[in-house]
Design brief:
heterodimer, A: mainly beta, 4-stranded antiparallel beta sheet, globular, B: about 120 residues, 6-stranded mixed beta sheet, about 0% helix
Chain lengths: ~110, ~120
């Protein structure tokens, strides 16, 4: 059983389009995250949600809008895609942050904007 | 703000050599967790270890060992008798235990390890 799943795994689209990446976790975790990994492999937090509430919004353009319909899902919608949005996007989840648990990562979604 | 530095961008070793990956962190908080993750060529992020700031005991797991030294703010990772399957990018990361910093991992830039047969 997949713990954290993301769809799609690969996404190729043109500049200016709007696209969504879906994330689901079946671990019963309270907290979910989106990270962006750029072409140099640098991983940086974008958003954190706890019990569907936005906790962290780390200077991400407002073209990126996360949506958490329930605790098990955190989707990422991106409007007006730009070339610089090309990256690998990782979803992750964890139990409550003040507990000694690691974050469990999804397989990643490789977004290519042409 | 937190910061994690992995000064080694790329390391190449010959199979069966030992290799140490360095990690230095900065935080004003006294309570935090440190992590190592492995990212093989297939791209997924694999959790390797978590240490909390209260526990400076070194840890060994098979060919892997970790040396946590609070005095030098370092959390180094050693692979003994390296194998080709160890080839990957390795990330060191920090998470605070309380506050906004507990809701995110701060990653280093990663060290790409290539093990040559």
């Amino acid at each position: 059983d997949t713990a954290v799943s993301q769809t799609p795994k690969y996404l190729v689209t043109q500049m200016g389009n709007d696209k969504s990446i879906k994330c689901e976790q079946n671990l019963g975790h309270d907290t979910m995250y989106w990270y962006k990994q750029d072409s140099k492999k640098f991983l940086k937090i974008m958003f954190s949600y706890n019990n569907k509430e936005l906790i962290i919004n780390e200077t991400v353009p407002n073209r990126f809008s996360p949506k958490s319909p329930d605790k098990a899902h955190l989707n990422l919608h991106i409007n007006s895609l730009e070339l610089g949005d090309s990256a690998v996007y990782f979803c992750a989840s964890s139990p409550k942050p003040n507990t000694p648990y690691e974050q469990y990562f999804g397989p990643g979604t490789r977004l290519t904007v042409t | 703000a937190q910061k994690v530095t992995q000064a080694q961008t790329e390391i190449s070793v010959v199979e069966k050599e030992d290799v140490t990956l360095d990690c230095v962190y900065e935080t004003r908080d006294t309570t935090y967790y440190l992590f190592w993750y492995k990212q093989p060529p297939s791209g997924e992020l694999v959790f390797l270890i978590r240490r909390n700031s209260f526990d400076e005991q070194n840890e060994i797991s098979g060919r892997y060992s970790w040396n946590f030294q609070k005095s030098t703010s370092s959390f180094n990772f050693t692979i003994t008798a390296s194998q080709v399957v160890d080839s990957a990018v390795y990330f060191c990361a920090l998470r605070l235990i309380v506050g906004a910093g507990s809701y995110q991992l701060t990653f280093g830039k990663g060290t790409k390890l290539s093990v040559i047969p």
